[in-house]
Design brief:
Largest sheet: 6 strands, mixed
Number of helices: 0
Strand order of the largest sheet: 2-10-9-4-5-6
Helix content: under 10%
Structural class: mainly beta
Length: 117
């Protein structure tokens, strides 16, 4: 599956970003979709998921700061990042399901988020 993330960038602590994920190869409403991230030297970690019925779940460390959503008309997945911290610096990926294998084929190429003053 070819997933394309966008929206990353450099932001100051306390700032916000909106990440987007698009694809023409599957319909997001039909699958459990997630956002994961990988910081330098660390393993991939699950951040948030959204099910077909639009119910959501979050990692404890980001709950209340990050919001996962989707636009069913545009078939676009989003991750709103608020109150960013330096420890949120990482490559962010969208993917189908919550497989955290390094070479998982249903994961995008990622978008870099850097939080720094």
């Amino acid at each position: 599956v070819h997933l394309v993330e966008s929206g990353g960038g450099l932001v100051q602590p306390g700032g916000s970003l909106t990440l987007s994920c698009t694809t023409s190869e599957l319909t997001f409403t039909n699958y459990y979709m997630t956002w994961v991230r990988q910081a330098p030297g660390k393993e991939l970690e699950w951040l948030a998921g959204i099910w077909s019925d639009a119910s959501t779940a979050y990692r404890n460390s980001v709950e209340g700061r990050f919001t996962i959503s989707r636009d069913d008309v545009k078939n676009t997945l989003y991750l709103q990042l608020n109150s960013l911290k330096t420890e949120d610096t990482a490559m962010y990926y969208c993917q189908k399901g919550d497989n955290l294998a390094e070479n998982y084929e249903a994961r995008g190429q990622g978008t870099q988020v850097t939080v720094s003053s």
